[in-house]
Amino acid sequence: MTSLINTSRPPVFCPGCSHERITLALDKTFQNMNIAGHEIALVSDIGCSGLFDTFFNTHAFHGLHGRALTYAAGIKMSRPGLHVIVTMGDGGLGIGGAHLLSACRRNLNMTLLILNNFNFGMTGGQFSATTPPEASVGSGFLNQLERPLDACQVASAAGAAFVARASSYQKDLVDLLEQAIRFDGFSIVDMWGVCPGRYTKKNKITPASIGESLAGLSPMTGVVEANIRPEYGTQYRELSSALKPANTPKGVAVNFKPLFSNRREVILLGSAGQRIITAGEIICLAGMSAGLNATQKNEYNITVLRGPSISDLVLSSDPIGYTGIEHPSVVVAIAQEGIDRRKGLFAKLGPESMILAVKGLVLPDSRARVHEIDMKALGLKSQDYAMAAVSILAGMNLILNADMLKQALEYRFRGSALEASLTVMNQCLTTS
Amino acid sequence: MHFVFMEGNEAIAWGAKASGCRFFAGYPITPATTIYQTMINILPPDGGIVMQGEDEIASIGLCMGAAMTGLKTMTATSGPGISLYSEQISFAIGSEIPIVIIDVQRLGPSTGSATRGADGDIQFLRWGNSGGLPVVVLAPEDVRDCYTLTQKAFNLAERFRCPVFVASNKEIGMTRENLDLDSLEPVEILERTISNTRDGFLPFKAASDSGVPDFLPIGDTFPVRQTSSTHGPDGYITTDPVVISQMQERLRDKLESTIDSYSYYDAVIEPDADTLIITYGVSARAARASQRQLKQKGKNVSLLILKTLWPIPDQIIRQFGKPVSRVVTVEMNLGQYVHEIRRILPEKEVIFLGHMDGRMISPQQIQEAVTHDQLD
C-alpha cells in the first residue's frame, strides 16, 4: 500500500518535534495494515496534535479542544466499518477528561493516540494535566501545586481494555499502533515526546530520558485482561435488534356525547404517591372519548416521592388556548400539601364551582359548594383517593360519566392494574 | 382520525422520527428529558441510534460526528445545556453541520427552576455562538406545532446545513394535549443534496444556486474533510482574507437571503383593528384567547404569531404591522424579541407585556395590556 501522507500539504513541525516521528509511524502502520484513506476517519482537536488531520489523505474531522472523542463516537456508531483514530495532546486529555473516561467505559472500537509532550506547546508552554511539578513552564509556579495525571492508569481504571504507554521514539511503535488499531474495542496509546518549540527550552528532556522515565514505571503494553469485554457498537446493535418496534400511540375512540359545551377546568390537589397525574390523564382521556379537547399540565416537586402533586386540566368543545386554570368548575382536594400549594385559588371560587374534598382536610374559605368524601369509611388507601374521586365525579355525571371513565381505564390500563382501577370505580360510582 | 393524548416533548420525538432522524444523543435534564425517553423507546427498535452523552458537550458532539456521516441527527436540552452546547453550536454553524437542537426552555438564569417555564433563551439561541452568524429558530405554540415544526426544522437543517433550534418551553413540552395525528399538516421530507462528483470534490464549495455546499459523507469512497478552523472551499485552514470573507458572507446570506421561504407564522387579522398583538410560543395560546374575549367585548385586535423567530421575518412583521398604530409584544421573559419589533417598526407605538416568574402570561393580562390606553 502507498503512503497516505498528504503530499500537497506536507507536514511541518518545529525541528526535533516528536510529532513528526508519530506522523511517519502512523503512515507506516496504515501501509502495513493495507488500509485505504477512505477507510479511515482521523479525528483531531486543537493544538499541534490537531494538525494531524491535514497530514493524511483520509476522512478528517477536526473539532474543538478536548471534544474529539465525542465526534469520533458519533462517527463510529454511524459507520462501524471505518477505522476511527483520534489524535489528542496532553491539553485535550485534560480539558476532555470526561470524554476520555466515557470512551474507556463504553469500549467503542476506536483508537486514541495521545501525543503527550507535557505542555501546551501552541499557546506558549503552559502546564497541562501531565506536566511534572518540577518542570519550568509558562504558568509560573502553578504546576508545582498539581500532581500530573497518568493517562494510562486512569484509562485502565476507567475500563479501557487496551492501554499502552510508549515513547514516540521506540523502535516497535509501528507494531504497537497496529495492535491498538486492530484491537476490537477502545484502545489508547499514550506516546511521550519532546516539544522543542517550548518545553525543552527550560527543561531537559531527550528521547533517552523519556526511555529512562518509562522504564521506571510499571509497563503498560496493550491488552488489559481484566477489562476485556464485548465491543460497544456490536453489543448495541445486538441489543437494539432484539427490541420490539414502538408503534404510534393508539387512538382514543370517540363514542360518547360530551356532558357540556365550551370550557371546563378541573384541578386535582394531592400529594406525591396519590397517582394524581394518572387520575388527571384519565379525566382527559374520558373527555376525549366524548370528542372534547383536553390539556393536562402538572406541578410536582423534583423529589417525586414527596411534596404536593397537582394536575391542571382543561376540557373544551372549542380549541383550548390558555392552559392555565382561571375558573375551575371542580376542585378535587385530596391532600393538604396540594391545597396549601394552591391556597390562593379558593377565595376566587364562586358558588358555581364544586370542591370534592377528602374528609378531614382543612380547606381555605371559599364560596364554592363542598362535597366531602369519607375515604376511610370506603376503606380506600391514599394511593386510590384520586381514582376514587374521579369515579365519584363520574357517578355525579359531572365532567365525565361512567361509560367514559370505563373506556378511559380500559385504554390506559392492562391486567391487574385495570382490574384494580375498575374495582375502585365500581365501588365509588354510587357513593356520591 | 387518530386521536392521541401526548405532551409536546413526545410529539417532537415522533416528528423527528417521521422526518427520518436516525441519530439522537441527549443528557437528562428537566424539562427536556421526555424527548430523550421517547427517542430511546422509538428509534433503536427501528434501527436508529440513541446515545446518552457523558455531558451536554458530548451529546451534541456525538450528533455532529454522526451528522457528517450523513445521518439526520437531533439533540434536546434546556437552558443550562444550551450553555454547554454553545461552543459546538459555533462549530456546527461554521462547518455547516446539519443538526436539530431542541431547547425546552425553563426559568433561568442558570440552573434556575427546572419545572417552571419561560421563553428566556430567545436572544441567547440567536447570539450564543462565537462569530455571531445566523441560526434558525422555530417556536411551537402547542403539541401540534411540536410535531410539524420539528419536521420543518429537519428540512431546514438539511437544506441549509446548519443548526436549527426548536425553542419549546416547559409549558408546551410537559403539557399533554389531544392531537389528531391524521389531521397534521403534511410536510414533505427533504434530504441533503449529495454531490454527484467525487473527482475534485470540495467539501465547502457552495453550489452556486443555493449557497450551500453539496455533501459527501465521512465514510464515502472519497475521503472528505470537516474542520472547525477557518477554511476555504477545500476544507483546509486559510488566512486569505478574501476567501475568509466569502465564506463568512455565504454563511450569513444562505439563511438571511432566503428567510421569506421559511417565515412560518399564523395571523388572525381584524381589518378594522388599530392594535396588533405579536407573540410566539406558549403565550400565543393566551393571546388567541384574549383576542376572542376582546372581540366579544366589541374590541377588535389583530394577532400575529411568529413561528420562525430567527432569522427575523422582517417582511412578515412589516406587512402585518403596517395597518395598525399600536403593537403589543407578548413574551414570557423580561423583554427580548420586543427589541427586534421596535427596530423593525420604529414608527409604531410598541408596548411590551412579559414576566419571568414561572407563570404563563394569562389572557386577562393581555386584555389589560391591549386596552390599557383606552381605559386611561
Please describe the structure with a list of short key phrases separated by commas or semicolons.
heterodimer, A: 432 residues, alpha/beta, Rossmann fold, Pyruvate-ferredoxin Oxidoreductase, domain 3, seven-stranded mixed beta sheet, six-stranded mixed beta sheet, 16 helices, 34% helix, elongated, B: 376 residues, 12 helices, globular
- Report the helical percentage of chain B: 25-40%
Morphology of chain B:
globular
Number of strands of chain A: 13
Unreliable stretches of chain A (pLDDT < 50, length at least 5) are none
Mean pLDDT of chain A: 96
Question: Helix/strand-derived class of chain A?
Answer: alpha/beta
Percent of sequence in beta strands of chain A: 15-25%
Q: How much of the residues of chain B is beta strand, in percent?
A: 15-25%
In CATH's first tier, which class of the largest domain in chain A applies? Alpha Beta
How many strands, which pairing sense, and closed or not: the largest β-sheet of chain B? Answer: 7 strands, mixed
Specify Rg of chain B, calculated over alpha carbons.
Answer: 21 Å
